[in-house]
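Suppose you are handed only these lines of text.
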Amino acid sequence: MNALVRALFGLAGRLSGGDDLYRQDYDLRAGTYDLAETRPLTKRASEDLIARLELRPGSRCLDLGCGTGHSALLLARAAGPSGRVDACDISAGMLSVAERAAAGAPCPVSFARAGMTEFLEGRPAASADLVCALWSAEYCRPGPLLRLCARALAPGGRAAMLVSTAESLSELQRAVAPLLLRRPGSIRRFPPINFPPGRAAFLAAAGRGGLSVERLEERALTHSFRNASSLAEWLNDSGPAAGLAAALKPERRGEFFAAVAGEMEKRGGLTVTFRYLECIGRKK
Ligand SMILES: C[S@@+](CC[C@H](N)C(=O)[O-])C[C@H]1O[C@@H](n2cnc3c(N)ncnc32)[C@H](O)[C@@H]1O
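From them, the structure of the protein bound to S-adenosylmethionine can be written out as follows.
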């Protein structure tokens, strides 16, 4: 998708009241989220980032957009029995999977159904050692989110994030955008798009928010879909494609995904690239 089309979709997202679309899709995908073809890639990146943090035992952690609980459980293991994790997510479906996953966690883990900015607003200031948002910060505007993270952190506390950028899955964006533009009647609302354009924009937002950035790497992971049906299944079931199905009119979804699959057949498959920022910031 070029920058102009992305800007138009972004504007449409702000105007069309599609804030709820990600929640709707994540509710439907909760059961398949961890089974998606690309999930091992994103899981490994999360594990590497948490290991890199070398958390102190007893750390008080917040997990924003905890999903099915993989990130909350990694934090609980890293913080040990004297630590604690308070997690939030907007999707009741994702949270119910997370609650089951965290049943055997080594330290207390709580889950709240809340948007991450309202969750942070409700936290006491300077009360957390770590605020984590793995594959979830891109759903919120970075400026307000990073400011609220800094507020919740104790002096010296850290924020750790894996944030998809606007260029993530650009191969898919380029394939899907023309099909959407040719079928405007398929769309009911647009999800808001807050994905940062790149490193510089995120760095500036972190600085303004009160975090000094200790690590900010642009990273990429690639995955090839073998055939059109595996891509169609992934569009329907996975986290990275959330927002697309809910944006479409239910009666037009089947036809739209068939058109995407047809496009993939013509191209002989599709390799997608997850582009994301790995960020560790410290409260100034
Ligand atoms: C890609 S998943 C990541 C889940 C988890 N952090 C992980 O690494 O497996 C993104 C999650 O963010 C949640 N989410 C999206 N927008 C949110 C918001 N504004 N506030 C809280 N959670 C949100 C979704 O419901 C979804 O569970």
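What can we learn from it? Residues 3-283 form a domain with the Rossmann fold fold (CATH 3.40.50.150). DSSP finds twelve helices and seven strands in the chain.
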